[in-house]
Write a structure and sequence with these properties.
oxidoreductase (chains A, B), FAD (chains A, B), 8-stranded antiparallel β-sheet, FAD binding (chains A, B), homodimer, 14 helices, FAD-linked_Oxase-like_C (chains A, B)
């Protein structure tokens, strides 16, 4: 009995896509330089039972399964492999419960991040994780890649908001792990193991998420610096003095110019680094004044605090446009995601500038500076083989630099296909052996998202 | 070659204790009703290399190893098994680094929680996890049991503060996992797997801990209620309205009377429940006023807000004395640790009172109410076999009730020996199978803390 017929036995017709023109459009997420195969079929289940049927079928027939959310990922973790079942969770998009007393939401994996955020806002609650793609990306994808965002400097990453999960295992059995409670230490933390596992250990079909009370609206400040080193010094001072900004972002000269070219924002061309800080505290103006003074002391040539939410939005717009602006510089971009201890941020930025010069490339950097998480974005002409090669090499140099500075190859984008050769380098042989051992416990046949991570 | 001689080859003489009178004193942690065996030897290493030597020796000779911190645990997780090596980490107690810019501390496992807390305070930093035993318990033990404390309602549990670990594996190899950075998603989260694993996966020899800026001193309020249900209604209202207390504790009538009897605190005997709330916000008085009003609306007969830190301490003293006071009621106590969704807290407390009546026992409850984490404390006469049996049965009924209310058998004390029969009931067969699989990956010979957890 063939794969499609077997799938049909437990799925409605419209949940099974086989037209190659259609299935081909499910081959990729948003990463560059990542191989992608041709799926045999795309399935769009709407229930847990349907997911179980798909996994039982895959196990019986030994067919690889590639789970997908909204495919906004940046590491190729959702890329199809040849002959695989693409298991898209986008139709499982119900918000099942929002509970203000327990401060939790229970959701299906296909819920869009922004949809959940707005829904909990209506109850005076806040779901912090806010990847740049928050209007499109799904909670299941956020869990799979352990996504971050702008708010992490104060509120942490997705992992910190996942309390419990329902997961369909490789063989189709259903596991419920974690909790609905604020605390719980019964046994090993399987929930956390699934977060960031890129669909390689099981299919998340339901999540219990922790929520926070909705904070006051944030107020932002922009500070212009004559060097990235001075901006990084300000970042270190702000954090060492105990401030709790809700956002602390840095843009380098290349990013600033790209944004200026695109949107005529009037940022002075002499600015080498722009620092954006925001506070959602009860007295944001006082916090901004204190942080503004630290910026000035570190050498800022201009400090512009917003006085209203609208002014704040205007200041933050430059940061939001960065990636789009950098994508216009050349025909292609590769976004890196190296995170270093924030005390090493200046070295990371200087080192990245040196790598750009070495390879004669344009590399714009924006950074979640408060977290030490940099996104060096290599701009290159994909039609030029030499420039493409240099782009790939510079990308590797950037990761090597990050590791050398005590950092990690990925702060929030994940490993996927893009960085799997680098994962072993970061983890070391003992770590890799243990991780492979864990993978085998959950997926002895190796059918879940093969070729990713390791 | 025998065990002791083999250990001597890599350890100084004073690090090896073999006198049965001495080794016998290492047999137990602080849990009641938990079997403990007789160790063959107690070792007190001072270096990572010595720990590696111990584990290599244990692997070669197939000798079980029981890791111990300060033995303040409440589940028997550190209890010796017959013929085991007790591996006490208390001599590895260096604070290696405190870094205010990166907001991290790097420590050895034997560092006492309060010692670390005070050391980081000197840098304007804060290590939140504060188990009741914080003056005695060690960071390694806190990591092993994923400890909580009073501050968790605002600041979360130990797990949230462990960024990276060095772990000596069962076979003596050294694993470094996790990070020094604020974010990082490279591979499966092994770090989190070790937290709460009760020494069953490896020996933590170094930890990178996240720190927070030191908050302002907290200001507390006490509110007296005519019923636990009214107090729980206040808890739900406080949390649903988005307040962020730094402490939200509840004491039931039995606890209040025990404290009154011991310390003559003058709490009215008509009080059925005492709620304690504190805020370490910039304007604690305003927060206390708002919370006081919610208490009054929920039926509080008296609300006493502190105006100074000294007054706050006085109010909180009753809570701090609870366990000691309950220990004086009868010759023995069993402390439970059931955590339920906070919306079910009232049912948990009423149900516990019914269980006390059913078994004709004194059960005092104090609770980290903001977390839904209750500590029903069964007071009984250990010399009376029938009362001891009823105590044990009531303890089980309390866990069953917690699970029935959507809770967990352990919010912060762990499983150890005490609750291992209950772990399977909470996890279910699929969860247990996966957890056992993980255990086998890390400890194929089963020498690490055998007989605990499963």
């Amino acid at each position: 009995m063939d794969l499609i017929a077997r799938l049909r036995a437990g799925l409605p017709g419209e949940a099974i896509l086989t037209d190659p023109d259609v299935t081909g459009s499910y081959a990729n997420d948003m990463a560059s330089f990542c191989e992608a195969g041709t799926p045999a079929v795309v399935v769009l289940p709407r229930t847990v039972e349907q997911v179980q049927h798909i996994m039982r079928t895959a196990t019986e027939l030994r067919v690889p399964v590639v789970p997908q959310g909204a495919r906004t990922g940046l590491s190729g973790a959702a890329n199809a492999s040849d002959g695989c079942i693409v298991l898209s969770l986008v139709k499982m998009d119900r918000i099942i419960e929002i509970n203000p007393v327990d401060r939790i939401a229970v959701v299906e994996p296909g819920v869009i991040n922004a949809v959940l955020s707005r829904a909990v806002n209506e109850h005076g609650l806040y779901y912090p994780p806010d990847p740049s793609s928050w209007e499109e990306c799904s909670i299941g994808g956020n869990i799979g890649t352990a996504s971050g965002g702008l708010c992490c400097v104060k509120y942490g990453v997705t992992a910190e908001y996942v309390l419990g999960l329902d997961v369909v295992l490789a063989d189709g059995r259903l596991l419920t792990c974690g909790r609905r409670t604020a605390k719980g230490v019964a046994g090993y933390d399987l929930t956390r193991l699934f977060v960031g596992s890129e669909g390689s250990l099981g299919i998340v079909v339901r999540a219990v998420l922790a929520l926070k009370p909705e904070p006051p609206g944030q107020l932002a400040l922009a500070a212009e610096f004559p060097s990235t080193a001075a901006a990084c010094e300000a970042v270190c001072e702000i954090m060492a003095r105990g401030h709790a900004p809700s956002l602390l972002e840095l843009m380098d000269r290349t990013s600033i110019r790209a944004v200026n070219d695109m949107a005529q924002m009037g940022l002075p061309d002499s600015t080498e680094a722009l620092l954006l800080a925001a506070f959602d505290t009860p007295e944001p103006a006082a916090d901004l004044a204190a942080v503004g003074a630290l910026c000035t002391a570190a050498g800022a040539t201009e400090v512009v605090p917003a006085e209203t939410a609208a002014e704040s939005d205007l200041l933050l717009q430059a940061r939001r446009l960065t990636l789009t602006a950098l994508e216009r510089v050349k025909s292609a971009t590769m976004i890196d995601d190296v995170c270093v201890p924030r005390s090493r941020l200046a070295e990371m930025l200087d080192g990245t500038a040196a790598i750009a010069e070495k390879y004669d490339l344009t590399i714009g950097v924006c950074a979640h500076a408060g977290d030490g998480n940099t996104h060096p974005t290599v701009c290159f002409d994909a039609a030029d083989p030499d420039e493409s090669r240099r782009a790939r090499e510079s990308f590797d140099d950037i990761m090597a630099l990050g590791l050398q500075l005590g950092g990690t190859i990925t702060g929030e984008h994940g490993v996927g296909v893009l960085k799997k050769e680098w994962l072993a380098r970061e983890l070391g042989p003992v770590g890799v052996e243990l991780q492979r051992g864990i993978k085998e416990v959950f997926d002895p046949l190796g059918i879940l998202n093969p070729g990713k991570l390791f």
